[in-house]
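New to this. Look over this protein:
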Amino acid sequence: MTDQTHAKVQTRHLKRGAYLYVRQSTLRQLFENTESTERQYNLRQRAIALGWRIDQVVVIDSDLCLSGASAVDRHGFQRLVAEVSLGRAGIVMGLEVSRLARNSTDWHRLLEICALADCLILDEDGVYDPAHFNDRLLLGLKGTMSEAELHVMRARLRGGILNKARRGELEMRLPIGFVYDTESRVRLDPDARIQESIRQLFRTFRRTGSATATVKAFREQGLLFPHRVHHGARKDDVLWSE
């Protein structure tokens, strides 16, 4: 820590809590990028080094496995903003800007609230005061770079998907009734019961002329329809229901 960094932390900040926000975008990252998660939790020691007591450090990690592209479903981030708004936070900590937000609107809203509430922001590089122009400018640039990084990553993923599609090698989740064979070609499901159920569906639709009438006819006849499980312990199993 530099003297300049320490100078930003005042007694009024230390009287309030130090809020650590921890996030990983996906379940896979949570299990595979364990070092990144550990580094985020280790920021508690930075707060203690700056003068906060361990009991003043509040860890918000309810947004694990959620993308930072939007704050809509990130209840942890919403709680963080609320705590800052209520004047309970002396400092907000995140390993980097992308952990807190990858959306400029969410990021600048947090900066504005921190500036109004006299709350500092800490990342791996240092401590910033959003009420100071130079710090606000640097934090704004970091937020812009974080959002741009998300755009680049999405473009790369989409480019890879389109390239596989052009080669005819892109496998997608197939509707019930179709499966991939050993050569990755789409074929009718070999299960005769599934084939007959789907044929019955189309015959009924052609006869009745509407989806609602088709559903009604299936229910009246007590016919079940198959659907494939895509997640969990029963993944790829076929279940029959109305």
